[in-house]
Amino acid sequence: MRSTLLRFAIVACACALMISPVFALSGGSPARTGDRLTRATVFITSLTPSGKNRAQVGNCTGVLIDRDLILTAGHCLSDLGGPSLVVAQFFDRSNRVVGAIQVASGAMHPDYAGRASADDPKPELLGADLAVLKLASPAPADRKPIALADDPVAASKVASVLAGAGLRRPADEGSAGQLRVARVASEVVTDGPTAVALGVAGGMICRGDSGGPVVSSAGLWGIVIAIVRKKSLCNSTVFMAVLDPTSRGFRTMVSRAKKSS
């Protein structure tokens, strides 16, 4: 059984993290051209009206789990806050964004209740920070969905990498949009169908990489949901939602996304 101290630390960190902006990978290495992670990962860009003649632009990372379905972090969808234009962009041979397909609709994990608060953190549900986006048309033929790991907890114990296309330089808003990867060593720290893993990445996680996929040789087992913040918006310590494709909540989310229009 996990220690009370460890659980307290998780809750305390999560309460602070889940009210923070979305994050991205700074550092790491350029993704390898044409490998399974590169072909499956997408860059999500949203445009949301925020006032008269004004709009807010947001970015997240996501991963294809079917020809027209993208898995990402739930707060990437809930943060839109109203009618928005959302597109998924793919990567060229230089791992830069190219082409785009509009997102037609999406579905949240049914157990995701929004960002945690100090009054009601619900630590057992933090791993429900997931959403599935449905594309208006299937991804290009050269893009290949990535398979989910049958046993995500076991998959997390194998050498893993995470991918993100957010800011490569924390202070440079123009540095987003190039897919990069970094190794991550992790440990699953909560139990159940909405488990969370805590990891340390070989690169800094900053704005734009929420929803980034975490994979090992066993398949896709995690999605980046938050970082452990210090004084800056970047850090290498990251929280990941552990994916359980057999759970009721996950299956409900995917089913709703498939039926949505």
From TrEMBL:
Q: Keywords in UniProt for this one? A: Disulfide bond, Hydrolase, Protease, Signal
Recorded family membership = Belongs to the peptidase S1 family.
Gene3D superfamilies cross-referenced by the UniProt entry = Trypsin-like serine proteases
**SUPFAM superfamilies from the entry?**
Trypsin-like serine proteases
Residues of the Peptidase S1 domain: 25-261
* Highest taxon above the source species: Bacteria
Q: What is this protein called?
A: Trypsin-like serine protease
Q: Which GO terms describe its molecular function?
A: serine-type endopeptidase activity
Q: Which PANTHER family match?
A: FI18310P1-RELATED (PTHR24276:SF98), POLYSERASE-RELATED (PTHR24276)
What are the GO BP annotations of this UniProt entry?
proteolysis
**Organism name:** Hansschlegelia quercus
Signal peptide span per the entry?
1-24
| The keyword Transferase appears for this protein | no
